[in-house]
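ENTRY TYPE: paired fold submission
RECORD: A
CONTENT: sequence, then C-alpha cells
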Amino acid sequence: MKKYGWNELPEPVRDAIRERAGAIDRLGEIETGQSSNFAAVVHRDGTTPLFVKGVEGVSPAMRWLRNEAELGGLVSGIAPAVHFALDIEDWLIVGFEHVAGRRARLRPGSSDLGRIADTVNRIGDLAAPDLKPLEQRWKSSWWPKLAQDRPEIVGDWDLDELTAWEQKAPALTAGTSLLHTDLHADQFLIPVAGDVRVVDWGWPAQGAAWVDPAFMVLRLISAGHRTADAEAWAMTNTRWREAAEEEITAFAVYVAGLWNYKAATTTRLACIARDYAGWRLRLSG
C-alpha cells in the first residue's frame, strides 16, 4: 500500500483535515501499519492531539476504516473516540482521539495479562445487535481448498474430519456480543494510568462472547505460553469458560484452515493455529 506524507496529500484533503482539526502545530507521521495510506498524530494548538488515518480509493482497507468510524459510541471508553470522518475526493479520512500508550506484553508472567482479560471481558459484555454476525462471514470451507492447493499443510490429517469440524464452526459462534475478531498485542494500548484501550476495529462482528478470548489463546501461544497454560488463562479469566469443548475445537479447526489458506507463505502464526487445531482434535478424539 502506497504511503503518503502530509505534503504529498492532495491539497483539498489537507484543507479538510485542517478545517476539522483546527490550528495544527505539528505532525508526527507514523510509518507502521499496512491498512492506511496516511497516518499521523496531529498536534493542535491549545488542545489535545488527534490520530488521523486516511485511505485512498475504494478498497477493503477503506471499508475497514469506515467500519472503525461507524462503530462510534458502541465502544465508548474502550476504543479511541471518533472526532470526525469525511469523504473528500477519493479519500476517506478519520480523526480519532489520540491515546498515548505502549503495546501489550503477552509473554508468560506479564503483569499486563490481568488488564487484558478485563478489557476482553468488557468487549464481550457489550451487545452488538446491528453488526453482521460472524456466522455470516465464516462461510468458506478452507480445508478442501488447502488439500487441493497446498496438500502439504493437510498432510496425513483426515480431510473429512477437518471439513466436518469447520462446517460446524459458523453456527457455533452465534451470539449477540460485540467481537473485535483481530485482537493481538499491538491492538491493546496500555496507558500509564487509566483503562486499557483497543484500536483497529476494522473487522467487528456480532457473536458469542467466547470468540475473542479464543483468538487470544492463539496469541498467547504465539507469545510463548504453553497451550494448556493459554487455555487455563482463558478459562480462569474470560468468558471462554462459557464455550463447550465442541465449540472451541470447531473454532480452532476453522481458524487453522483460514489462516493457513490466507498465508502467502506458511507463517509462524498459521503454523501455531494448525498445531492448536491438532491439540484440540486430540482432546476431542
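RECORD: B
CONTENT: sequence, then C-alpha cells
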Amino acid sequence: MRGPDRTKTEAPLNRPNNIVDAALTAKEFKTLADLVFHYTGIKMDDRKVPLMAGRLARRLRLLRLSNYSEYIDYLTADSSGEEREIFVDLITTHVTHFFREPEHFKFLARHLNSLQRYPLNVWSAAVSTGEEAYSIGLVLQDRLGSSRWQVLGTDISAESVARARTALYPMTGIDQIPEYYRSRFLLKGRDSMEGYFTLSREIRDQVKLDTMNLMDFTSLPGGFRPDIVFLRNVMIYFGQEEKQSVVDRVASVMPEGGILMIGHSESLNGLKTRFKLVQTAVYERIS
C-alpha cells in the first residue's frame, strides 16, 4: 500500500506559508476529537488538546492553512480519503520500543512448548513501527527455529506499517534488545546504512505487516488465526463500549486455549469476555 504524501499542498496558494495563526479552540478540538473517534474508536479528552495541536500544526503549515477550522473543512471535504489517512497517522502514532514490558516476552518463551501448535501464529494487534512484532520474532526464532512460527503485525497507521516493513532501526535503540539476541539475529548497517540495524532475513521473512482498524475487522488478513495475541497499550485509548467491541472481535478470531496479552496498565475488568486471567495482563481464551 502506498503511503500518504505528507508534502501535499493543495490548499489555497494565495496564503503565505507561515506559522499557524490561531490556537486550537475548544470547539475545534471537539470537532477533531469526534472525527478521531469516528475514524478509529479512540476517545480523546481535554487533556489531549496540546497533543492534538502539536501533531497537526506542521500539517497546517504544509497546507498553508491559518487555523484548525480551515483544516477541518479541508479534511472533511477530501473525498479521496488520503487526508483522513494522514490525519489518523498523525494522531494515533505512539511511542514504542523493543521488548517493552519484558515479562510478556519471558512468559512467551516459557509457554511455547505447552501450546503444541506449529506453525505457531502470533498477532501483534497494534504493531506501530514494528518493534513489538520483531521482538516476538526474536523469541520465536530462538525457541522454535525457522518455518515453525508466523507473526502478523497490524496497525491503523499506514505510515507506521510502512516503516515497520523496512525493518530498519537506528542504532540508538539497539540496547533495548538483550545481548543474547543481538549477537545472533541482528545485522548492523554499513556505508549508507551506517547508524542503523536490521533483523536477520529468517526473522524478517516470517513477520507479515498490514494496515487494519481494530474497530471494524471481522477476520484477519489472509485468514490468519492467532494462537497468541499481543493487544498491548491500545485499549487505554478506548471507552468501555469500544473496549468490549475490540475484545469480542479479538476473541472471535482466536482458538480456545489461545493466549491474550494486554498492557500492564490495562484491564478487562467490567467487560463480559471469553477470557480468564492467567497472570497479570495475560489471559486464556475459553469457550
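NOTES ON RECORD B: Strands lie at 120-124, 149-155, 168-170, 186-188, 196-199, 207-211, 228-231, 259-262, 275-279, 282-285. Residues 1-19 have pLDDT under 50 and may be disordered.
STATUS: closed
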